[in-house]
Amino acid sequence: MTIAITGATGHLGRLVVQDLKARTQPNNLVALVRSPAKAADLGIAARETDYDRPETLGPALAGVDTLLLISASDVGKRAPQHHNVIAAAKRAGVKRIVYTSLLRADSSPLRDLAVEHSTTEAELEASGIPHTILRNGWYTDNYTGSIPAALANGAFFGSAGEGRISFATRADFAEAAAIAATDPKHDGKTYELAGDDAYTLADLAAELSLQTGRTIPYRNLPEAEYAAALVGAGVPDAMARMFAGWDTGAAHGALLDNGHELSRLIGRPTTPLSVAVRDALVVARKHAA
Description:
CATH class of the largest domain: Alpha Beta
Largest sheet: 7 strands, parallel
Low-confidence stretches: none
Strand order of the largest sheet: 3-2-1-4-5-6-8
Helix content: 40-55%
Mean pLDDT: 95
Number of helices: 12
Number of strands: 9
CATH architecture of the largest domain: 3-Layer(aba) Sandwich
Shape: globular
Distance between the termini: 44 Å
């Protein structure tokens, strides 16, 4: 069975490939990437795949049995890009698709994200190709990636208020994707995936303070003020406004889930916040050295 992975050189994609290589022979795997040269270190075959150039999609999907469609990174462009991939997969005779969607995509208040995902889910249903939908919640890494800035600034900033977020690491979600991609028993299912435990950003700041021996408080800012702070830190304006808006959504429960479907799917508890912070500090210290 040939399994192709889109976005294989991305943060999630690399972890998925690593997990898949432990579950099947590397020669069963194909990385679908814009630049095959950047995928050389993955240790699997790579094919040029550009969502915006449909002529690349047919050759890339030739002979593929299972397509793991990791959602594209261009917010606002994903629905047509995913449409191109799904249409090409149907023409190529791909037998099944596993898609990484968004937690509660059909009802999430994070509409700028959810609409694209729900549109893709509908495309998959209309395609007639057997498929599995993995509705991923929020990555712990989305916030632990800001630890170096929090240490430099002496505070952790955000707009999530007291909203509780069911964090899970990218590695947790990657394992779920690899499991679904290698077992057709998941076809026809939609999984709402999130961490076992929910935390506020104040909890994250407290854990960071505990592990560093410093007092790193959480500073909650109004959405517009947080977006402006992100722009000041070098984040493009449109992206900064999206990040701040997602935090506001989290303040109203958009990223909270108590279903425990992720831990059931991977057969183990999701990674605790304390471990994720510890690992992020190791990386931050290496980069600072």
